[in-house]
Amino acid sequence: MRSTLSKATALAAVLALAAAACSSNKAADGAANETTADGKTVITVFSPSDPTMNLDTNRVTKLMSDKFKIQFKWQTTTFDSGPAKEKRQISLASGDYPALFFLIPWVDAFTQAEVLKLGTQGVALPLEQLIKDNAPNIQKALDSNKTYKEMSTAPDGHIYALPQWADCYHCNYPDKLWMNSAWLKKLGLQQPRTTEELRTVLEAFKTKDPNGNGKADEIPMTSDPQDSSLIAYLMGAFAYDPVGANNGQRSLLTLNGDKVTTPVNTDAWRQGLKYINSLYKEGLIDQAAFTQNAQALQAQGNNPKAVVLGSVPVLWPGIFVQLGSKDGRDKQYDAVPPLTGPDGKSYTGLNYPTSTGYTFMLTNKASKEAQVAAIKMLDYIYTDEGQEIANMGPEGVGWTKPGPGDIALDAKTKPLYKPIQGDKVPKNISWGAMGQYNNTLAYRNAQVVPTDIYSEAGLERRLFQATKLYQGHEDKAQWFPQTSVWPDPSLSGELATLQTNLSSYVNQNQLAFITGSKNIDTGWDAYVKGLDSTGMTRYLQIQQQAYDKYKAGSK
Q: How far does the signal peptide extend, from start to end residue (predicted)?
């Protein structure tokens, strides 16, 4: 029944979009312009909004409204990704969509396939001429950043939507392991450097009462499926586990020269899973690591009776422990560099670019005046001043100029701005993640960050320093440039289905091998055979064709 309903819904959406496309020629010269009594251009905007935000009264909304003579008419949704995307799709399917989609990558951004569909149907307007005529800062970003231009430009040469560009150095290397240094010190141990040294440390955490409460309540290693890099971190000692460029979602693709391959059917991958299974069998990996939700992991990390977590493979410590904890437990965790495996391998995944998905899209509901006003507003956000205001709010409220003795995140860089911390910042003064469009590494590294890395305010420096342990362990020769490679739009539906089915198949089987519900020695060949019946051969074929076309065009 559910399948029938979903097909009917999909058909309705396609018909509605087709109808919208039929009317798009009329909008090619711009929809009718609507202005307010004081001469502002009315623009309907679809955006996410969290409970602390009121976009109608937001300080940045007022600033942008006055500066660019825009009257915003907001259509808002939540930061909850599922409902946000559903509301976005309903607006498109009904034909009652806005002049501008102004989204957040990790909430409700459009995919490549969606951008292509909406562009070819005439719903999304081409932006490249609008940018050339009105947006020198955006044009400069496109011309100076090859990856950004490749991400932005569809195979037909049009820019139907823009992704954000937010360089997050620590997000580039998500496969980190945070380990309790206080426990290591108490037990007289060093941070592990190899897979077998990790086993020794985890055994000591489990059996030698490092929290000193006389109870065997220590959890050597745990995580939660939503945030986990457990498999990836441990797999790096055996095989390159690709992240791709999907905000941390694992990719199935690697490169061997110019041949598109997958690592998940290799003997090295099998050896990695055998190692992880051995840790699980010995009780060194928590059974809950593969089933508990994020709240349950936080409950373990913040256990009021005792510190019980020995190590957690996730992006950053705040995922599993409350920063600023009264007993200082959050300061006990430090990053462990990638381990070296029995064959000398020591990989980490690369997530680049870290901000994916398409977040700025003008539709055929936008008048010419609205198009120009919106692109000029976005162009302002591409400046340092525009970023500071859009991301943090007005100067003196969300940020200040650096003072004497202030040090930038990258100490070799001249400090540019100083974010005001925590409770001192009023609510509803910025657009936050909605405005991170030209957040380059140079800009991000120029922020002032306290030198105490274990203070809440010093978190960014703590992550910056930790990430240096991982940089260089990525294998760029095997890295597949996911966001730059646009598959054939006619195959986008098939590709999405294959991706979903293969990801599910690989994840289910990996978990079965790790937990022992499937024997990896006797079940491996059947698993590999099942990859092909699930569509791996066809999936790699489609990706190979797209990659070949990308390589030919980039020469």
A: 1-27
